[in-house]
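Weekly structure sync, notes
Attendees: PL (lead), two postdocs, one rotation student
Agenda item 3: pending single-chain targets
PL asked that the sequence for the first pending target be pasted directly into the notes so everyone works from the same version. It is reproduced below exactly as submitted, 340 residues in total.
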Amino acid sequence: MTTEMKRALFQAPQEGKDVTCGLCAHRCRIRDGKLGLCAVRENDNGVLYSLVYDKIIAQNVDPIEKKPLFHFQPGSQSYSIATPGCNFRCRHCQNSDISQLPRELRGRIIGKAVAPAAIVLAAQQARCASISYTYTEPTIFFELAYDTATRAKEAGIRNVFVTNGYITPEALSVIRPVLDAANIDLKSFSDDFYRRICGARLAPVLEAIQNYKQAGIWTEITTLIIPGHNDSDAELRQIAEFICSVGKEIPWHVSRFHPTYKLTDARITPAETLKRARQIGIDAGLRYVYEGNIPGEGEDTLCWSCGKKLIKRIGFQVIENAAANGVCGHCGAVVDGVWK
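Predicted structure, written out during the meeting:
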């Protein structure tokens, strides 16, 4: 027993003292005394516990655009939290120092004890419009996220997941009533990429994207484009066409890669690649495609109907907004999203 723990949701006992975890698509079968792949759910004598229920390792006030969410309360602030741990092992993880920490420490958890009520109070005091469960994978700290989101909803604060999309349908159905928005990483359209680079599979992510949309949760998609790995026209077109099949109004963020963690042999994504990806998305029928991690007009929101600029951004800051009420200030078209 490595820390104070909370009984985990979505567990099913098996023969002996094994337990199956139904929280994410790995659906780990965990033996007594062992950890799941996320390294933050432990089987103790046939009962599964979360090791990170109150172990906050990061908390900040961020612009909602940093998630990135460009069509969800643009210009607002989001109180952002994370616990250690992740159910992926991405070789290019930009937050590997906290996402992989429990795995590296074999279940030893580092973090500050913060209760859900205290998180909501901090968000209120910072005048944040939402709480984002981010930086690491929010699914793995589901119990904390759910309890916090329930309190936040009662207080009039909205809730956001920034996620790899590996949640099971049963877990999504539980948090759906209190979850308002999500940015989901669609890292590639190749199952081989997911297996080699992330330690996961593609199909559950595609299913989750469809489930989020069908659940009425505002959804945006991010693809980090890595030269030599997922930057071909064919693959980008597959991603764009899939997103469009789920909903042409779903914003797609195509973001610039910088070598990090264990994936340092790939070069920085050229600006031309992002422009090409954006055009592929537009040609596929998507209404909103954004270039991320690079300054320029690719960050701005254009009206899908008249093509005029609605929201001008510099980095994560909104400079001008001609769609404050979700309506184009030029032609009157309804702009997809969740507005103040």
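Discussion points:
- The longest helix spans residues 233-246.
- The chain has a mean pLDDT of 96.
Action: rotation student to compare against the earlier draft before next sync.
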